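2024-03-11 09:14:02 INFO worker-7 job=invfold-0412 stage=load source=structure_tokens
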């Protein structure tokens, strides 16, 4: 079985990111970001609704790309009973080549911008675990939704303060998808350091 070099994985990851950005831009319906609730004036963030549409858009973009053919995109891949991965983790998305721990490209955890910080912290721990122990090349924490309340700076601060020095090398990216027809963007500014954990 041919093992991919880090340089090859880096090229594949950059192509995957291009597909992710195009997929996000292709999500043109507000419904997938906030669901209209009958009998209520408020819309609701429903992570699964967002993830299902992102999965659809991302699969289409990866298929068009063609260079990512060796990988499979899986949503909520249940790892319970896995012979190598311990516990019952269920990542939101994985991009990997089945039957090969050597070709685990990326793990993605998704949260709405209104998610409780302890949930986001758990997702960061999961990303770190999969990179450190299960040979995933990169991890992505994908936050979606409008930031009218300034919540992104709290998430941003938590994200950067949670990374160990050994992971401050872009092994894990924080990506924000603002809304319909918006291109997701990598968040690089560590933001204010006054977030309470």
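2024-03-11 09:14:09 INFO worker-7 stage=emit residues=197
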């Amino acid at each position: 079985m041919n093992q991919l070099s880090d340089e090859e994985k880096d090229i594949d990851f950059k192509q995957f990111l291009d597909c992710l950005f195009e997929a996000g831009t292709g999500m043109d319906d507000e419904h997938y970001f906030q669901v209209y609730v009958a009998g209520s004036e408020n819309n609701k963030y429903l992570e699964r609704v967002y993830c299902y549409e992102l999965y659809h858009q991302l699969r289409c973009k990866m298929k068009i790309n063609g260079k990512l053919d060796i990988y499979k995109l899986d949503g909520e891949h249940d790892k319970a009973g896995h012979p190598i991965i311990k516990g019952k983790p269920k990542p939101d998305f994985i991009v990997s080549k089945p039957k090969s721990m050597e070709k685990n490209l990326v793990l993605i955890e998704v949260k709405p911008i209104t998610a409780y910080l302890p949930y986001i912290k758990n997702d960061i721990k999961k990303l770190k675990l999969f990179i450190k122990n299960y040979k995933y090349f990169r991890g992505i924490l994908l936050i979606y939704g409008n930031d009218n309340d300034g919540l992104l700076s709290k998430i941003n601060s938590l994200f950067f303060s949670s990374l160990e020095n050994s992971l401050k090398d872009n092994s894990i990216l924080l990506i924000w998808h603002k809304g319909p027809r918006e291109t997701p963007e990598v968040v690089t500014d560590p933001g204010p350091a006054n977030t309470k954990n």
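2024-03-11 09:14:09 INFO worker-7 stage=report msg="The helical segments are 6-26, 47-65, 117-133, 151-162."
2024-03-11 09:14:10 INFO worker-7 job finished
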